[in-house]
Amino acid sequence: MTMKVDSDRQTRRDASPAAKGVPQLKQERAIRTRAVILKAAAAAFAERGFPNVTIVDIADRAGMTKGAVYFHFGSKEALALAVAEEFYRYLTHTMRPALEKDQDPVDKVADLLRRAAASFRDDPITQAGARLQIERQYIGVDMPLPYVGFTDLIASLLQQGLEQGLLPEGATPEALARVLVSAVFGAQHISWVLEDRSDVVERTQEVLDAVLYLPRQQRAAREPVGR
Questions:
Q1: How far apart are CA 43 and CA 55, in angstroms?
Q2: I want to staple 128 with a disulfide (CB 3.0 to 4.6 A). Which of 45, 108, 169, 218 is the partner?
Q3: pLDDT tens-place string over residues 196-207
Q4: Where is the sequence biased in composition, kind Basic and acidic residues (predicted)?
């Protein structure tokens, strides 16, 4: 009889609202811990580079034990992959306000690239993602293909701009997108080396003026008055 009573009490405890909430609390705590580790890893990778960072370095930055880091990420390579994936998610998040603005497609492209430049200047996840792509040969896992989705988005906006007469006739949106993305991400790299990215937004604007806006101004100047 006593065993049955004890069993019934345990069943009631397991079915109580407090007991049901325990897994959710643990999951939320795990999500928060994972985010802290990712942020610490991103800062370390951005500052020192993948080859020069250890799990102990990341654990110290995160304020936790090495075992806690390994519980969430099985290796330094897994952490690098997670940071790179978070980088592209963050880029997508950064784009959203520009895409929702009421502006023409070419101005949306410029807005997107300026926002990306500001992220390179201000956000450790973005800085780490860019550096990890450069160091991908040192990382023993398959990293995301660099900037492919971002370039496709730019190309689709430029295609809309071409259809609206905002680009020169005969312009190739895909090629122009590749040039823009290469120039902007190259500019951020040079800005990083020379100025710790303090001038990356200005260097990005120079790219936009030369590649996007100057041709449009030249075309407008050649058009007959009153056309």
A1: 13
A2: 45
A3: 999 999 999 999
A4: 1-15
pLDDT in tens, 101-110: 999 999 999 9
Residue 56: CATH number of its domain: 1.10.357.10
Q: In sequence order, which residues have a C-beta less than 8 Å from that of residue 179 and are 6 or more positions away?
A: 211
Here the tokens at position 3 are: 């065993």
Q: Following DSSP, what letter does each residue of 87-156 receive, concatenated?
A: HHHHHHHHHHHHHHSSS-HHHHHHHHHHHHHHHHHH-HHHHHHHHHHHTGGGSSS-PPPTTHHHHHHHHH
Q: Residues in the chain, how many?
A: 227
The neighbour count for residue 53, using CB atoms within 10 Å, is 20
Q: Domain range holding 118? A: 2-222
